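Q: Here's a chain of 421 amino acids. Please give me its 3D structure as tokens.
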Amino acid sequence: MSTPAPVAVPLTAAAVVDGTMGTVLDSIVEVERLMASLSAYRAVAIDELHRLALAAEGPSRSGPGRPWSAQVAARRVAASELATATRISEREAEQLVADSASLVHELPATLDSLRSGRLSYRHASILVDEARTVPAESWPAFEAAALPEAESRTPGGFRQRVRAVRERLHPDSIAERRRAAEESRSVQLEPGRDGMAWLTAHLPAEQAIGAYRRLTEMASSLGAPDESRTLAQRRADVFADLLIDGIVSGSGLGRGVRASVLVTVPVLSLLDAGAQTSSATTPATLEGYGPISDDVARRLAAHAPSFVRLLTHPETGTVLSVGRERYAVPRDLKLWLRIRDETCRFPGCGRAAVNADLDHTVDWQHDGATRHDNLAHLCEAHHRLKHQTAWRVNQAGGGALEWRAPSGRVYRTEPAVRLAG
């Protein structure tokens, strides 16, 4: 593994305190060059991790879904090892593994520019990202045309120029590329601050524009002389009403099905509407998001039929009730485990348990029992990772899991909610 030459950084406290603006700026520029150089070293190291994972992969193991090839298993092992060791998301780790392979093996000139600090890692990742959208045989010409633009432009300006280069060099028509791009359509949820979240959709442009215009038209039709909400606020309210209830409240617009969400409410929050949850009290939580205010929790528990209401002990967090219509649910193992886990139980994974598999820690075929202390939620990807690679997991008691990585490192994950079992 080759090591990039380090970049000297003439940065001292005296330079910052007593230096001129030019001196301090020079130091900042040198720090940026050092960060770029270290990014090149990291890319080489990550690619070496991937190579070692590939060398260590033996015959494919049995498990859920189609068996992974050695290449896929090695990529997943390298990404999961990197994610758990550095405490980054697995998606970010997968991106680093893929980008590092591209820089080391397909885009050597870009790696050299990064190593010498002539461009930032952000510029390099943009070039890699755009290069992947052209055929492999066009990469050398693409890199030669795009790389000089990186040394004189901001990342945003560089991406615009790179896309122009891409259009010029791409052998496929835009219609052909559009058909392939439709495969990436998706909807994503990103928690925000202060009880808010972002719900975004990646759609074909005409669908996105059509949906936005319909939201705007419906929101505009709800305007009235005494309306206090802005158009943007009404548009957001219409969007939520349509997706959650299938109908816009107060207007009858739209039709469909209701969504179902779990909200966990400390029992004292319902008993005393005037009390505020203290820092020592377990807050109410919304599945897939996290803590919410007592006011919102009380409203959901009392009035929202599409929300399953869970009452918990104010000190221990043990589930006391799941609403009058679901009193027996604590004995329903599937929902009990969904409440306990909340997400996939692989280290660092945040995929919701409601969309995950219930996995026997000790396989059923190896005499593993169908009990709460031998079951845990794993998303499809990590379910397969457990069965088809050298990752191993054991129940550690109290709902905790201990994972052993192929490298030998051990990671522990705790349940979201402690339940009496």
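Q: Can you summarize the key feature?
A: The first helix runs from residue 13 to 18.
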